[in-house]
Amino acid sequence: MELDEIDKIILNTLQKNGRITNSKLSKMVGISAPATLERVKRLENLGVISSFTVLVDYEKLGYTITAMVNITLNLSDLPSVRLIKEKFIALDEVVECYQITGANDFILKVISKDMKNYAEFINNKLTQIEGIQAMNSSFIIDKVKEKKKFIFDNDKSYQLLKKKPKKKGGK
């Protein structure tokens, strides 16, 4: 799908501030409010904008453990990959799940209040899933970069985004 400059500015702006009013967004992109709303709805309908959401800082809520769990499946004991995926999705502690290539089959990002709760999760939930051959946990000790946005950075849209709107009255 090809995006024009206005679409890119809309996407960049909404990623920075999903609560911006349509009126303010339309002023930033330089088109009417109805045209801006129509573009946002089109991007939603095409699936380019998948949702508007709030990002939560888990640590501020007392969830101090973040683990990346590498999962290797035992293909001979595997009921089906689809069923494994459904079980991973059903686990509240799993906030991200990726099926991957290489030495492992899946990587799970798991959030937990503390090590005791993490151990309970592993022992009482994850090890109960049929078809898992091996698990290896790595714990996050520092977030060096955690990017939640993808900025469409080409010269025109970037310059338009950085340009300050002119004030009325010629100044």
Model description:
This protein is an alpha+beta fold. The chain has two domains: 5-53, Winged helix-like DNA-binding domain superfamily/Winged helix DNA-binding domain (Arc Repressor Mutant, subunit A); 58-139, Alpha-Beta Plaits (2-Layer Sandwich). 36% of the residues lie in helices and 18% in strands. The chain has six helices and four strands. A four-stranded antiparallel beta sheet has the order 2-3-1-4. The two termini are 39 Å apart.
**End-to-end distance:** 39 Å
Q: Per CATH, which architecture of the largest domain? A: 2-Layer Sandwich
How do the strands of the widest beta sheet line up side by side? Answer: 2-3-1-4
Number of domains: 2
Under CATH, the topology of the largest domain can be stated as Alpha-Beta Plaits
Number of strands: 4
CA-atom Rg in angstroms = 22 Å
Summarize the structure.
This protein is of the alpha+beta class. The chain contains 6 helices and 4 strands, in the order αααβαββαβα.
Task: Considering the chains and any ligands shown, give keywords for the structure.
alpha+beta, Alpha-Beta Plaits, four-stranded antiparallel beta sheet, 36% helix
Topology of this protein?
Layout: H1 5-16, H2 22-29, H3 33-45, E1 65-73, H4 81-90, E2 94-99, E3 106-112, H5 115-124, E4 132-139, H6 155-162
Antiparallel strand pairs: 1-3, 1-4, 2-3
